[in-house]
Design brief:
By secondary structure, the protein is α+β, with helices and mostly antiparallel strands. The chain is 45% helix and 19% strand. The chain has 5 helices and 6 strands; from the N terminus they run βββββααβααα. β1 and β2 form a beta hairpin. The longest helix is centred in the last third of the chain and has 26 residues. The chain is globular. It starts with 10 loop residues before the first strand and ends in a 12-residue tail after the last helix. The relative contact order is 0.09. The mean pLDDT is 85. The chain binds zinc ion. The site of zinc ion (ZN) has 8 residues, from loops. The site of zinc ion has 8 residues, from loops.
Length: 174
């Protein structure tokens, strides 16, 4: 594994442990040449995926890129790193199990938006504003209306449970 700091190929594994609910192995490494420390992950990959960009260009799917865009949307939000990790793993599993080997960047974007919408409204607006390339205030208003309706749905759902109704009564949700 090439050292990200000096490019040396000599690194030693200092520590190795399961992570992300045993779906990955996390290895702490130290570079023998510059002493730099870094972490690598070994994961199961169910299938090779290709992303078809808006331009029509095809690139290999990279979990790291997906994770980075999710992390940017969630920057400084009160969400634990483990939950972000689980969210990304869930997204990747959905993509890998879709039966398609090619996915469009638009499909990935929609999937991420749906997940963030459940997790954190602020991150959802951030991601949507970049992904959908908001140009004016009305774009924001449409998304804020969605969030307002999510929140009132949630309140309704919580009230339903609080009142002791059986959980099989479906809460208003579109
Ligand atoms: Zn190094």
């Amino acid at each position: 594994m090439r050292c990200p700091f000096c490019g040396s190929e000599n690194s030693q594994v200092k520590d190795s442990r399961p992570s992300d609910e045993n779906s990955a192995i996390r290895r702490r490494r130290v570079c023998s040449d510059c002493g730099g420390r870094f972490t690598t992950f070994e994961r199961v990959q169910l299938r090779e995926l290709t992303v078809v960009k808006r331009s029509g260009r095809r690139v290999p799917f990279e979990r790291d890129k997906l994770e980075r865009s999710v992390q940017i949307a969630l920057r400084k939000r009160p969400i634990e790193p483990e939950r972000i990790e689980r969210l990304v793993t869930g997204l990747v599993r959905q993509l890998e199990s879709s039966g398609e080997t090619e996915i469009t960047s638009a499909e990935i974007g929609e999937l991420v938006m749906a997940a963030l919408r459940e997790l954190d409204p602020v991150a959802y607006v951030r991601f949507a504003s970049v992904y959908r390339d908001f140009r004016d205030a009305s774009d924001f208003q449409a998304v804020l209306r969605d969030i307002a309706s999510d929140l009132s749905d949630r309140r309704l759902r919580d009230d339903t449970y609080a009142a002791g109704s059986p959980p099989d009564v479906p809460a208003a949700k579109k």
